[in-house]
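Consider a typical record:
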Amino acid sequence: MKHRILKATFIAAVIAMIGSPAWSATEPIQPIQAAKPKNPGMVELGKKLFFDARLSKSGFISCNSCHNLSMGGTDNLKTSIGHNWNQGPINAPTVLNSSLNLAQFWDGRAKDLQAQAGGPIANPGEMASNHTLAVEILQSIPGYVAEFKKVFGNDKVTIEEVTKAIAAFEETLVTPNSRFDRWLKGDKKALTADEQAGYKLFKDSGCTTCHNGPAVGGNSYQKMGVVEAYKASSPAEGRVGVTKEEADRFKFKVPTLRNVEMTYPYFHDGAANTLKEAVDTMGRIQLGKKFSDADNTKIVAFLKTLTGDQPSFKLPILPPSSDATPRPTPFAK
C-alpha cells in the first residue's frame, strides 16, 4: 500500500513538472515550441533586411509592409497593396509560425522560407525590384557589407545570402505560450468551459482533419469547397498552377490558425471579414454542416485561445545609404 502511494506521488510530481502528457498522445494539436536561433548574427541581419524598404523599387515597401509584425504577421487587407498601389491577387498569409509550413505561398510554389524570401523582391506587382538591383543596393552600403562579411565570411553580397538571412529571422517568429498551449500542457484553468466546448466541437465536427499539428494547419493541401463549391473573388486557382495537374485545381495550403483572431480577413481571397463568417463558410462548404449561433460562438471562442506570445525585439536601426547607393524610384512604372 505504502509502495503504491509513493509511486502515485512520484507520477503526480513528474506530471506537475512537465505538464499532462495527454496532449502528445491523443490530441490532434501540439504546443508551439519557442524558437532556438542557431546563428544570432544571421538572425539580426535578417531582421534588418525584413524591415528595409530599400529592397523595393519604390524604397517604400518592405517585407514588413505585407507581413506586419505588429498586426499578426499580415496586413489585415483583403489583398495586399504593391508597387504603384497595385492590388494583389491574393490575401497575404501570416509570416508568424510560417517555418512550420510544409511549403510557402498559398499554392506551395516555394519549398521553404529562403525560396519564398526572394519572390516578392522581384515581383513587379509587389516590391517591383530585381535581385541584381537589390544586391547592388546592399553592396553599396558599408554597414551592410561589414555585417554580411561578419555573418558569411566574404565581402561579396549575394541574393542567396540575403534570402538565407531573411529566412533565419523568420524562423524565430513563432508564437508559443498561448492559453490553449498552456491548457494542453496541463493548466486546465487556462480555458473557460465555453472555450473547451468550442475545442470539442472543433474536433468532433472534423475541423482537425485539416487543422492539426503545432501550427493548427499549414501541413497539407486541401481542396476548398469539398461539399459545396466555393465562389472565390480571386483569380488564384491553387496548386494546379504549380503541378499542372487538374486534380489540384482549387487546392490550397491549409492556413495556420495560430493567432487567427489577428489575421483577418480570411481565406486566400480575403472574403471572410470575421471569424464567425469564416466558421460558417467552412462548416458549410467543407463539412456540410450548419453551425448554430451558439456553436459558432463557442468555436470562435476556442480559436481566440490560439493567440500566443507575439515576437518582441528591439526595432533594428538600418545602416545608412552611401553616396553610391542607387536611389529609389517610387513613381516609376
